[in-house]
Amino acid sequence: QVQLVESGGGLVQPGGSMRLSCAATGSIFRLYAMGWYRQAPGKQRELVATIIGGKYTNYTDSVKGRFTISRDIAKDTASLQMNNLKPEDTAVYYCFGTRVGLEYWGQGTRVTVSS
Hints:
- This protein is mainly beta.
- It has strands at residues 2-7, 10-12, 18-24, 33-39, 46-52, 56-59, 67-72, 77-82, 91-99, 102-106, 109-113.
- Strands 1, 2, 3, 4, 5, 6, 7, 8, 9, 10 and 11 form an 11-stranded mixed beta sheet that branches.
- The relative contact order is 0.33.
């Protein structure tokens, strides 16, 4: 079931920027961590970025220096700012949240980086 609401995504040119957002529904609160996975055709699911609490972050090597994840604890929302996008960033991005061993997922949004 989809319990996180994602927004953003779409078509962007190489070198461009895009912001993804993820918000918890009314039944979800006090999430321990939030982040994004992505999956491209023919590739395994990849953990892109994670934020624990409001400041501890982790990124996969391919996006370091280009992507920034942030979070508003009070609103239980997260944002993924993606800069200098590359064609290899093309994928469906799924946000997630965790709390006390539970997992919550967004519906996914497609990011296409192409000229």
